[in-house]
Specification:
Two copies of one chain form a homodimer. The first copy, chain A, contains eight helices and eight strands; from the N terminus they run ααββββββαββααααα. By secondary structure, chain A is α+β, with helices and mostly antiparallel strands. In chain A, the strands form two sheets. Chain A has a four-stranded antiparallel β-sheet. Chain A has a four-stranded antiparallel β-sheet with strand order 2-7-4-5. Chain B binds a DNA duplex through α8.
DNA sequence: CGTCTATTTGAATGTACTCAAAAGCGGTGG
DNA sequence: CCACCGCTTTTGAGTACATTCAAATAGACG
């Protein structure tokens, strides 16, 4: 298993010595998740933070009316998990499901704590991840408030380049908060330009 | 100036010794902000995390079409700031404005770093704040995707009890992502039940 | 090839917006 | 103290955006 991707990801924010890299990678656990299998389901405790080395996942809830709502997609080079459940070790509310055969590198809470103790700069790394995720969510709220479905669809295409070729349209619709029928109509209209 | 409120807030997540409390409060700076004055404007660097002791603020952006969009309201007992700008010491994108005469307790980045060094458990405290804010944002995204304006209005009333009496309706509309006219119509309809 | 699910299409409906104008309300100056 | 100004809220008509329901078509997979 190669750690190139994850080490490159970490090095975007912090600098590690070779020894620290070795410690870090020794704490990781590589896992394959087949398409349509779950990394997490509501009620379970999220025991890992997960770095996606290859593949693609979606994070969603099912509301009381039985409707799915996709919070986010995650592709190669992104971290995914249920932040709240992981840190509080409380039951998750989210589904996290592979949409392709996916390889993740996982770190559990115990390993995370050891990492913080031995390589404190990782506190900074994960805080930056959290901040970025927070800001991304904030932007998404503002987008949903400001823009029509068509504008949001264009932004989705920018934000997740190529992803529209990898995931079913109805999931993109769910992410955008519109019906699959309406997305289909939008695409038809947009194509005609 | 009384530190009761802020100490009570901190004690919800971490436990401090009397000496630690003294250090913490000595790092705080109390500030009055008159109604309609700004705590932060886009382009400025957010130099403080702010705990609201009394009053009420709103955090918003103005989009390229000149429309205001309220990201959040903050009342007594809440922390407010521009997370990204504060941690990266980069220009803010948000307006933070007092909607009443407001008293905040501020801590700047230098003081924060000293606090982390001398009372490391504060790392945990602010991480929990950030996580909670993240989860709150996530829920708001899902609400905007799942619910009609009427349902979102009810949830606003639950989430910010009494705030509808303190802020103009048009700001509530901005928070909900609807026009003031439509909120007015909604209220009329809901009153008739 | 058949089955299951995803996507498209269309008509009818509902939700929310725009534009315009009237009514309400708070503050300020004469 | 009242009149006026500016801003918020309400009201209504017409329109645009997005949904629902139903059915046809197209793709994916065993």
């Amino acid at each position: 298993m190669s750690f190139d991707q994850i080490l490159k990801n970490v090095s975007r924010h912090i600098r590690l010595t070779p020894e620290e890299e070795i410690l870090f990678t020794s704490l990781l656990h590589t896992r394959h998740i087949a398409c349509r299998d779950f990394l997490l389901r509501p009620g379970e405790v999220c025991r890992w933070e997960n770095f996606i080395d290859r593949g693609c996942m979606r994070t969603y809830i099912i509301d009381e009316k039985g409707m799915e709502h996709i919070v986010s997609f995650s592709v190669e080079g992104w971290w995914v998990g249920d932040m709240y459940s992981f840190h509080a070790q409380a039951p998750a509310t989210l589904y996290i499901e592979a949409m392709e055969d996916t390889i993740v590198q996982q770190i559990d809470k115990t390993a995370m704590e050891r990492l913080y103790r031995e390589v404190p700069v990782f506190e900074r790394f994960f805080r930056i991840l959290l901040q970025n995720a927070f800001v991304a969510h904030q932007n998404r709220i503002l987008q949903n408030l400001s823009f029509t479905a068509e504008e949001r669809y264009r932004q989705f295409m920018d934000h997740y380049p190529g992803l529209d070729q990898r995931v079913p349209q109805k999931m993109i619709a769910s992410y955008l908060g519109i019906t699959p029928q309406f997305l289909s109509a939008l695409r038809k209209k947009m194509a005609g330009k």
